[in-house]
Amino acid sequence: MSASREKKTRQDQASSGWTDPKTVREAQQRREAHRTNVLYGIIGVVFLVIAIAAVVWKTNIIPKSVTAATVNGEKYTAAEVNYYYENYYQDFLNDAYSILSMIGLDTSSSLKDQTISSTAASMLPAMGRPEAEEGENWYDYFARAALEQLSSIQALCESAEADGFTWTDELQAQLDESLESLASAAATYGYSEEQYLSLVYGSTMTRKIYEEQTQRSLLASAYLQNYQDGLSYTEDELEAAYAEDTTLYDVVDCAYIRVNSAAASTDEEGNEIEVTEEMEAEALADAEAAADAIYAAYQAGTPLEDAAEGYDDIAYYNANSAYTYNTSVLGEWLYDDARQAGDSAVLEDEGNDAIYVAVFNDRGRYDYNTVDVRHILIQPEATELSEDDEGYEADVEAKDDAAEAKAQEILAEWENGEATEDSFAALANEYSQDPGSNTTGGLYEQVYQGQMVTEFNDWCFDEGRQPGDTGIIHNDSTGYHVMYFVGLDQPYWEIQVTSALKNEATNAWFEEKTADYTAEQSSFGMRFVG
């Protein structure tokens, strides 16, 4: 068949709907080949995506960039939220370390699997922590608290900017110190800064995020402190605030004996026993009899402490101008406005399993003046010997003598120099080992009685102490203190009332500034927090 004839035949067949099997087979093969190529291409892309995702996951790009929370339109990554979460969590553990078992928190187990008990829920507000719902898991509690902190810091930073409160050299110095501490801690444990941050804050943390959020936290804190420092009150305002509720500030001079009225729950060998109603009634009757006998002896002229001798399960307390108000039976009796010097009574406190024999002496506020003082702390070097080593005591004594000699040398240097408060402050900054004051010239202001160790306290409040007085005192725990008395400050009750008023005003100001700032969580992003 000629070519033209064959072409004509194919055209006629095509026009009649006939399809050449060879053509169909070739077309099908081409389509299958195309589908195969597309399929392999798709499979290749899928595997490529999986491979990329695996690399991305290992480098924490997703946790570092995914949004975990949004506060008034500002988004925070999981890494940024984790900064606040870990800070809050660690601060909580440090604060509640001794009572973790009491509140039912096991740090070795997942926080998401542990729920908050009724006991813990009732204790948290008393610890100054946010309220919690019984049954809420600990992870959700810490996450919520962290987000509240984050929201508050954003609110204060934005308010600071609006008020023209800007970053200062002092704040930069604080930030630099924080970063230096980070570097030092990392080096101490043999890590890079990034490795150390990962250990503390999780694998999502970077130095950049740490620095940014630390800077925001410092600015917010300084802004709040600046507001509080700017508050002041007149003497009339302080007197009025004191008069509103004297029980908050007054202390009572009293003496009392506490007689335990609870039945013993263990036998003489320390084994637990079941306490019956009869046992409880007998224990109460015995306590009442003992309290009545002690009270009778006191009324007959026997000193209260002596009247309690010979009785079991009894304790004597001499609250020499130190008893503060509380809602116990004893507290309510002592703070009754009708109380007069010399009043005495037997008081039964069933709720606390106690019977008190109490004597009221006086009630009043702290009218004494606080003091301002500078000091230079010199601590003995620690011995490298153990207590069992030969020469241990001699080595400890030698190091103590060296510290005393250093303190004497510093005082002599001051006396042979300008011998002024400023020159003492300079020596404190140079020599003092007290981190709380060795950058402020060793200064402590408004020191109240009982605030410092006994020897420090007694020197400051020694009758007749005059501005410019110096001396050296020693405390077994702290070391040698070179002292400089600056002078008297406000009466302690004024400082107490001022502090209460400032806290009340600052809390109201804080609530106003942060009221409209709440965090919205992203369930996916929060998976990478904690």
Structure report:
It is a single chain. With 530 residues, this protein is α+β, with helices and mostly antiparallel strands. It has 18 helices and eleven strands. The strands form three sheets. It has a four-stranded antiparallel sheet with strand order 4-3-6-5. The protein is 52% helix and 16% strand. The model is unreliable at 1-59 (pLDDT under 50).
What's the arrangement of secondary structure elements?
Blueprint: H1 3-15, H2 21-58, H3 61-65, E1 67-71, E2 74-77, H4 78-96, H5 100-103, H6 118-126, H7 138-162, H8 169-188, H9 193-201, H10 207-229, H11 235-244, E3 251-260, H12 277-299, H13 304-307, E4 314-324, H14 329-334, E5 344-349, E6 354-364, E7 369-378, H15 392-415, H16 421-431, E8 443-447, H17 454-460, E9 470-475, E10 479-491, H18 492-514, E11 519-521
Antiparallel strand pairs: 1-2, 1-11, 3-4, 3-6, 5-6, 7-8, 7-10, 9-10
Helix pairs in contact: 4-7, 7-10, 8-9, 8-10, 11-18
